[in-house]
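Quick start: what a row looks like.
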Amino acid sequence: MKNNIVFLLIIISFWSCKKEPKEKIDLEEQIENPIANLNTIVVDEFPISDEILKKYDFSSKIGKLSSQDQVWFKNTNSNQVLIIELYTDYHRINTLLFYNYNIPNEVLHKINLTSFTDIATLEEKRNHINAFALNANEIDKTFFESNNKIKLGINKELAISIYKEPDTLIKSKNVEILEWEFYGDKYLMEYPEKIKDVNNKYVAKNSFGHKIELFFIKDKLIAMHLFNEIP
């Protein structure tokens, strides 16, 4: 009987030492991964893989204007243009989708073209945009819908139902611009002191920072700009 009691005490002691309190485990996980409890979203992009991008030139020149580190796509039937600007390892810095007609200055401003070593003016861009679009690579219309189902022509209400309420709303003449900005989880891992600034917003997963801009005229989406911070 005495031996059984001793054995039972040894078993209890063993399991008490082995099992860490849940509170302690949670605290240790939070210290090791300070963003573990944050709500995350997947960065939006278009279904154009690196393998597709490899097939095309990353630079083009028309007249005195140049497009560098960008691949231009078009769909003639829908009159849409998609520009993907690349960094190292096919990191997509800027992605711009727009209709190739009646392009407002607010959208032209997002197109990165250079005139020799200077940034092209809006007038220069407007005078050359049709030629660049004509020279773009033709692809199927299905590539012009983002992974989050954003495509030109949708209304503002649908866009907000997908991305939730925007951080900023800008009205410029007849163009309404909705903006969303997200911290990236990789950025917050490097700078955990910034977590306090998240304010219960979503954090972009596998990202250093993500920005979405949607351009509307008369409640219809006419352009979309995506920006991803570089590592």
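That is the whole record. Residues 100 and 210 are 25 Å apart (CA to CA). Residues 2-18 form the longest helix (17 residues).
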